[in-house]
Amino acid sequence: MQEPASACPAPPQVAATASLELQYIFIHIFLEGVMETSETLYDTHTALFERILLLAERLILIGQSEGYFRLSLDSGIIVPLFLVAMKCRDVGLRGRAIMLLRNAPEQEGMWHRDNVLAVALWKLREEEGSESSEGVLHSPIPEGDRVHSERATTATVHGKQVTLLRFKKGLTDLLTGDKWNEQVVSLPLFMGEML
């Protein structure tokens, strides 16, 4: 027997519920990671990362079926997808997060999709370009290949101001002044304040 139409949630109700759950999961993972000194903490959240992807996909489909994305002054789906792309170490889930980011609204609040994508793709290349000692990329990515503590600043190179991305890689203490790596990147500087 088919349920009456009134029993099925309308798209705005589905979107609101999915959005609230998405934000709850994002905040939960983010707050757990604030004081953690090891990137392996995020390995315990694979199921939550999968849930973020499912909810974001649902919200994207609802937005596309409505023919538009509404103006969002909060983080919407971009920031939770960015978290998955930056912190999840399952290669397949990271790839899905990148794909969903490409279909996300152009901007949500201060978050520009293309800037977030550029940072996420940089990290993906930096970590997944690393190979284990056997020459095979593993999922999850070994802690020794993980990039963390990313910061952007400006530098002058050959008389031109550029964005310099500083980061640590591998088994370094997240809270000390261990060795920093640096790369000149074509990213907007303001992203450095949000990494």
- Count helical runs: 5
Strand order of the largest sheet: 3-4-5
Q: What oligomeric state best describes the polypeptide chains here? A: single chain
Measured distance between first and last alpha carbons = 51 Å
- What are the low-pLDDT stretches, counting only 5+ consecutive residues below 50? 130-136
| Number of distinct beta strands | 5
Shape summary: globular
Largest sheet: 3 strands, antiparallel
Helix content: 40-55%
Order of helices and strands: HHHHEEHEEE
Structural class designation: alpha+beta
The rounded Rg comes to 19 Å
Strand content: 15-25%
**Average pLDDT:** 80
Whole-number count of domains: 2
Features of the shown structure:
195 residues; alpha+beta; three-stranded antiparallel β-sheet; 5 helices; 5 strands; globular
SSE layout and pairing:
Elements: H1 11-34, H2 46-65, H3 78-87, H4 91-102, E1 107-108, E2 111-112, H5 113-128, E3 147-157, E4 160-169, E5 181-185
Antiparallel strand pairs: 1-2, 3-4, 4-5
Helix pairs in contact: 1-2, 2-4, 3-4, 3-5, 4-5
Task: Describe it.
With 195 residues, the protein is of the alpha+beta class. It is 42% helix and 15% strand. The protein contains five helices and five strands; from the N terminus they run ααααββαβββ. It has helices spanning 11-34, 46-65, 78-87, 91-102, 113-128, and strands at 107-108, 111-112, 147-157, 160-169, 181-185. The strands form two sheets. Strands 3-4-5 form a three-stranded antiparallel beta sheet. Strand 3 (147-157) and strand 4 form a beta hairpin. 25% of the residues are buried.
